[in-house]
Design a protein that fits this description.
Largest sheet: 3 strands, antiparallel
Protein name: YbaB/EbfC family nucleoid-associated protein
Keywords: DNA-binding
CATH superfamily: Nucleoid-associated protein YbaB-like domain
Helix content: 55-70%
Oligomer: single chain
GO molecular function: DNA binding
Number of strands: 3
Radius of gyration: 19 Å
Order of helices and strands: HEEEHH
InterPro entries: YbaB-like_sf, YbaB/EbfC
Strand order of the largest sheet: 1-2-3
CATH architecture: 2-Layer Sandwich
Organism: bacterium (Candidatus Ratteibacteria) CG01_land_8_20_14_3_00_40_19
Shape: rod-shaped
CATH class: Alpha Beta
Length: 99
């Protein structure tokens, strides 16, 4: 039975640490810019969009489809950066967790 208690204790510690990490990540931001520099997206560690900037000339210099693609790709790139950072933080702070 002591082994079961140790497992429960370890799980509770991991849950607390994950909660701390999640709180910490809210303050981190991750920025991506489109290749043509007409779109900039910033997301936080909770994968929420913090800001989205679109250059005014983007509406006249590229097709609507290209602009839509730029917006989507730029947001996804920022989210990818946030996910990579989260993974690295989790690996360093919770090495026993299989990620």
């Amino acid at each position: 039975m002591p082994k079961m208690f140790d497992l429960v204790k370890q799980a509770m510690q991991m849950k607390r640490e994950a909660g701390k990490i999640q709180q910490e990540l809210v303050s981190h931001t991750y920025k991506a810019t489109s290749a043509d520099e007409k779109v900039e997206a910033v997301v936080n560690g909770k994968m929420e969009i913090v800001s989205l900037k679109i250059s005014p000339d983007a509406f006249t210099s590229v097709s609507p489809e290209k602009l839509e693609r730029n917006i989507k790709d730029t947001i996804n790139e920022a989210i990818g950066k946030a996910q990579k950072s989260l993974s690295e933080i989790m690996k360093s702070r919770m090495p026993d967790l299989p990620i």
